């Protein structure tokens, strides 16, 4: 969270003292510096919610402090103050990321207090927004992972559906083959029955020949043997072939 602390940089001790007293009355933690080099060391070691720097300092421009602060502490609200304002310096400060520009001497100290309070509050909102965006990005990454897992599950489901379709296809194909074999078996049964009927008719005809006609003894023996074989074949074939065994 953006701290409720302020870094004041000015080479005039009286300005630092007045500002420090006024801001501490509003519960701000105040740290002061009179040179850029000291301000940079403080920016490296402490966190600040706001920074109020004079435009002209003994060792350089306050713009350099703003530039360094924006780089090192992005959520520190930077404000410029000067007794000699000009459009060029104001625009440059704003371009570097300053949130406000105050002219010395300050007309009302309460205005400075309110500007610093509002600046810190705004930086807190920006930081919370940044944190929310980061969380949303993390959730998005996690969501992509879930999506990938969901995609894998969907692909597995699709594979199962394809396997089920293939199973149904194979089952239908098997049933079709069984039907075709059953049709063939029925055809064999029919031919078998016709053959049995033909053999029975032949056996009866031979019986008539043997009973009603005189034939040589040798021919009679052959006819009786033929009739015996026919009768035996008929007896063996009286029961037609059964259905194909069930394939498991």
Description:
The protein has a domain at 5-107: Rossmann fold. The chain has six helices and seven strands. The chain has helices at residues 13-25, 36-45, 62-72, 87-96, 109-212, 217-236; strands at residues 5-9, 29-33, 50-54, 56-57, 60-61, 77-82, 100-103. Strands 2-1-3-6-7 form a five-stranded parallel beta sheet, with helices on both faces. Strand 1, helix 1 and strand 2 form a beta-alpha-beta unit.
Number of beta-strand segments:
7
Helix-strand string:
EHEHEEEHEHEHH
Tertiary shape: rod-shaped
Question: What is the average of the pLDDT values?
Answer: 77
Report how far the terminal alpha carbons are from each other: 73 Å
**Sheet with the most strands?**
5 strands, parallel
Q: What is the radius of gyration?
A: 54 Å
Strand order of the largest sheet: 2-1-3-6-7
Provide the CATH architecture of the domain at 5-107.
Answer: 3-Layer(aba) Sandwich
In helices, the fraction of residues equals 55-70%
Helix-strand makeup class: alpha/beta
> CATH superfamily membership of the domain at 5-107, which one?
Response regulator
Characteristics of this structure?
248 residues; alpha/beta; Rossmann fold; five-stranded parallel beta sheet; two-stranded antiparallel ribbon; 6 helices; 68% helix; disordered C terminus
In a few lines, what is going on in this structure?
By secondary structure, the protein is α/β, with parallel strands linked by helices. It has a domain at 5-107: Response regulator (Rossmann fold, 3-Layer(aba) Sandwich), CATH 3.40.50.2300. The protein is 68% helix and 12% strand.
């Amino acid at each position: 969270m953006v701290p409720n602390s302020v870094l004041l940089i000015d080479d005039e001790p009286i300005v630092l003292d007045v500002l420090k007293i006024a801001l501490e009355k509003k519960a701000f933690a105040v740290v002061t510096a009179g040179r850029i080099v000291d301000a940079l060391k403080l920016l490296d070691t402490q966190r600040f919610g706001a920074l109020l720097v004079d435009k002209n300092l003994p060792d350089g421009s306050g713009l350099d402090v703003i530039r360094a602060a924006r780089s090192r502490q992005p959520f520190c609200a930077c404000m410029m103050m000067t007794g000699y304002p000009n459009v060029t310096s104001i625009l440059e400060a704003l371009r570097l990321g300053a949130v406000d520009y105050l002219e010395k001497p300050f007309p009302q100290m309460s205005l400075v207090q309110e500007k610093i309070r509002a600046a810190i509050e705004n930086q807190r909102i920006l930081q919370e927004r940044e944190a929310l965006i980061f969380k949303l990005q993390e959730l998005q990454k996690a969501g992509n992972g879930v999506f990938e897992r969901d995609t894998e599950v969907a692909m597995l489901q699709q594979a199962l559906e394809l396997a089920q379709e293939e199973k149904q296809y194979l089952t239908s194909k098997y049933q079709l083959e069984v039907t075709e074999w059953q049709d063939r078996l029925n055809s064999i049964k029919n031919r078998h029955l016709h053959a049995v009927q033909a053999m029975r008719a032949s056996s009866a005809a031979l019986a008539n020949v043997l009973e009603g006609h005189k034939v040589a003894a040798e021919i009679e023996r052959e006819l009786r043997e033929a009739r015996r074989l026919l009768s035996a074949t008929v007896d063996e074939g009286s029961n037609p072939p059964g259905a194909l065994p069930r394939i498991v």
